[in-house]
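Following up on my earlier thread - several people asked me to post the actual chain instead of describing it. Fair enough. Here it is, all 147 residues.
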Amino acid sequence: MPQFKSTYNIMIRPDQDEVFDPNWMDSDELILPPKTKWSYDREMTIEDVDIWEVMHESSGGIGLYVSWSPYAEFYLLTTGWHPIKEDQWANDRIWETFYGQGAQHKVINRIKELGLNQIKLKTYNTWVDQEDLWLHQKPVNVNLGKM
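Reply from S.P.:
Thanks for posting it. Predicted structure:
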């Protein structure tokens, strides 16, 4: 079952719940939050995203999220918490974003570089419309080694 979170739920209040409407449980079919397609007319920022699909979350502030609304090749990788003092942690995550062409490959390579072995991603063959094919082509100078 997919999970969805707001930027606020991820970055500020991770202890609060996900984006969820209890009425979704009234159906025997999967109901997803509404989404709009991103136009790619400018670079996306974290502030542009209303809803993220949760790809992975684990303790210690580790997580991988992909933009759902608007729907785009835009990933948010969180890699821990900001320390304030010894033995204390701020409620701010350390994060990086990956956008546009090859973003999926770039975020996978970054996960490998950081040694975040707890992030296990499954890959699938999916249909991509011709107009969006450029987003999924291998960018220059990206190593696509096995995870």
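Residues 103-114 form the longest helix (12 residues). That should answer part of your original question.
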